Amino acid sequence: MKKNKLIIFSYAIPLFIISRKIYKLLKRESERNKLKDSVVIITGASEGIGKELAIEFAKQGSKIVLASRSIDKLQKVENQLKEKYVNCEAISVPTDVSRKEDCINLIETTLEKFNKIDILINNAGIVTYDYFYNTSDEEIKKIMDVNYWGVIHCTKAVLPYMMKNKKGRIVNISSFVGKRAMPGMLAYSSSKFAIQAIGEGLRAELRKYGIKVTTICPTATKTELLSNALSKRVKFSQNIGMSANRVAKETINAMLENKREHIIGIPEKIFLFTNNFFASFYDFVLSFAPKFMLKD
Ligand SMILES: NC(=O)c1ccc[n+]([C@@H]2O[C@H](COP(=O)([O-])OP(=O)(O)OC[C@H]3O[C@@H](n4cnc5c(N)ncnc54)[C@H](OP(=O)(O)O)[C@@H]3O)[C@@H](O)[C@H]2O)c1
Questions:
Q1: Could you tell me if 56 and 188 lie in one domain?
Q2: I need a labelling partner for 146 at 20 to 30 A (CA). Which of 94, 153, 193, 263 fits?
Q3: What is the pTM for the complete model shown?
C-alpha cells in the first residue's frame, strides 16, 4: 500500500509540473495573438536590446513607437522595420527620458498617432564603470536621471491613460546587477535596484486596475552599453555575453506569461540563489572584478 502511494506520488509531481508548463505555454501563445495591432512604446530603441525588441514586436504585427535621443538612428531602425515587415506601422519620437516633458510628449504623440497604448517598455539605460570612490556625483546623478527617473517619468506619463482604461502592460528592463550589487558598477547597480523596487511595488498597486508589470533582469549582453559608458576607463567594449535578440525574445515571453520578474539565464539564477547562502564568498570573488575590467 505504502509502495503504491509512493509510485502514485512520484508520477503525480512530474505530471503536475509538465501540465503546468503546457498550460503556461498555451496561455502565452494565445496572449501572443493579442500583440497584433497592439501599440508598443519602446524607449532606448535606437540600438541594442531596444532595437531587437522593436524587431520582435514588428514580427508580431504590433504598431511600434521608437524613442531615444538620436532621431537619425531611430529613423534608420524605423525604415528597416518598414522595409522588412510589410504593413509595419512605426514612428520615431525623439525623447530624452531624463526630461519629464519629453516623456509626456512621447505619450501624447503616441495617443495622437495611434489612439491607444497597450505596452510601455522602459528600456533606455546608460552605465558607468569605475570604483565607487572614483565615480563623481555628476556621473551618479546622470545614471539615476536616465535609469531611474527615466522609468518614473515615462511610467507616470502613461499611467493616467492605462488606469482609465483598466488595462496595459509595463515592462522595466533592469539587470542582473539590480539583484546583486556588482563592484565597479555601484552607480548603475543602485539605479537598477531602485527600479526593481518600482516594478515590484507597482505590480501590486496596479493589480486592481488590470495593469501588468514585469521586471526583466538580463546579464551581460552583446550591445554597445559598455562602449557608450560614461567613464572611459573600461578595458572592454561589450563583445561578451548573450545576444540582444535572446533578451528581446525572453522579455516578450515573460511579459506574455505575466511574470513579475524574469532573470535571464540558468547560471545567473543559480548564482542569485546561492548568493543567499554564500554572499561573503561572492563578495571576495567579485572584489577582483574592477581590477580585471579597468585600465590602469
Ligand atoms: N548590455 C548589457 O549587458 C545589459 C545587461 C543588463 C541590462 N541592460 C539594460 O538593457 C537596457 C538597454 O541597454 P543596451 O545594452 O541595449 O544598451 P545600448 O546598446 O547602449 O542602448 C541603450 C539605448 O538607450 C538609449 N538612451 C540612452 N540614454 C537615453 C536617454 N537619456 N533618453 C532616451 N534614450 C536613451 C540609447 O539611444 P540614444 O543614444 O539614441 O539616446 C540606446 O537606444 C538598459 O536599460 C541596460 O541597463 C543591458
A1: yes
A2: 263
A3: 0.94
